[in-house]
Amino acid sequence: MQKDQDFPQLEVLRETSERGITRDISWRRSQLLALETFLIEREQDIAAALYDDFRKSPAETFLTETGYLRGEIRFALKHLTSWMKTHRVSIPLIYQPGHSSYRSEPYGVVLIIGAWNYPINLCLAPLISAVAAGNCAVVKPSEHARHTSKVIAEGLYHYLDKRAICVIEGGVETSKALLEEHFDYLFFTGSQTIGREVMHAAAKHLTPLTLELGGKCPCIVEPDVDLRVAARRIVWAKFLNAGQTCIAPDYVFVDKKVEGELLRYMGEAITDFYGADPRLSSDYPRIVNENNFNRLEKLLSASLPLRGGITDSHEYYVAPTILKGVTLQSEVMQAEIFGPLLPVIAYGDLGEALEGIQRGPKPLALYLFSADPKVQERVVRQSCSGGVCINDLLFQASLPGLPFGGIGSSGFGAYHGQAGFDTFSFKRSVLKRSLYPDPDLRYPPYTGKKFGFLKHLVTLFS
Ligand code: NAD
After folding, report:
1. Which one of 36, 60, 65, 212 is the catalytic residue?
2. Any idea which of 173-177, 375-379, 452-456 has the lowest mean pLDDT?
3. pLDDT band (50, 70, 90) for residue 94
4. Catalytic: 136?
5. Which CATH number fits domain 218-405: 1.10.10.10, 3.40.309.10, 3.40.1650.10, 3.40.50.300?
6. CB of 194 closer than 6 angstroms to any ligand 1 atom
7. pTM of the full predicted structure?
8. For a pocket test of ligand 1, which of 120, 122, 246 has the largest count of ligand atoms closer than 8 A to its C-beta?
9. Distance between CA atoms of 391 and 399, rounded to whole angstroms?
10. Contacts of 447 (CB under 8 A, 6+ apart)
């Protein structure tokens, strides 16, 4: 394991934080603009790195990574002044004269650990929030997207303030060694298993943290919607990034009256989007590594593919696959799939689907296709998830005005837009009092008469 002295950069960051350099709004703005410049000037290098890592297409990279991040930066620049505003709070009569307020202050030096599946987005979106909030930051990209990790490391070194922001590349051992260090805040994106380890490490230094984890996100399809549109949107959201998306629909619950029709439209959508042989599509990525490929092959071998089901271990290819005959007890329903396998389960009554969802762990996202506002309200009320999207998928995570995060085993804390700024700041209260008057009433000894009068005052004026 690496020793403390292997991270000399941390000392530099701590010193910068102590000197208060990163608190200044002009510093925050300059770093956000520099990050934007990096994303614009190095767009092609970033796209090439993601293609090399798992054959992600430049269009998907722009839509889900660089384009999204540029929007997030613009949003932060636009709202930064108001987010940083000091809030005045009125003072009860008994505490007057005085002046009270609170403000958002940076934690100090924060650690951001990213996952590989959206390797730029999951490192830089938290960094935007951390910088907007005035922190110094260490970014640890995932070792499983090694080309992208390199572009991030080189890019941030050249574009951002080295005194305050650094990238430390490496695998599990580096991550563990970093977690031994004392940071002021931890922001982790990844699996539930590693999330537990991160929380354990945080406890040692009592470090506050956010965990952005995964889980099984359900999608319910009611019979009263345009099934062709629903099918196209579901297929798009599931097979984007070859299903390696934390908020992808993990499985579909569909009213059995329209199951056949939905399946037919889904099949058509797969051919429309990726051609008769998706392996030849330049828009269809690969599975990131052998472990994940083997895991998906094992799930496939225990399932009945209605469509797809083809794999190729030479290039970690798994075809867009729809599974039928799945029940809540099937192996594929026991953990997050995180790949291009889509189980479809038919229900006779919406209540059955809701009960199935309620009995499982709380998901990161829940999707519903229904034209009926009463059904929409019922599903939102009778379920719990990090976010909900009705009649579409994934976009709840793209709007900078909406907080993004999990609940229960899908994580805790949120970011994007102001939620990200708030996550990386704490509210610091400041009370200014006058030295006078200084009545004897507040000080002991509390005689019976004095205590009675005090009680009266506190009850009436606080
Ligand atoms: P992972 O948990 O294996 O790794 C994430 C990061 O943790 C990597 O940087 C890795 O180096 C580090 N790490 C690995 N082992 C560690 C250890 N023992 N101690 C400390 N750090 C360690 O996750 P992954 O495979 O990169 O990502 C897939 C998972 O992430 C899925 O479950 C997915 O749902 C989830 N995810 C969640 C979100 C979200 O926003 N909620 C986004 C993307 C992915």
Report:
1. 212
2. 452-456
3. confident
4. no
5. 3.40.309.10
6. yes
7. 0.95
8. 246
9. 16
10. none
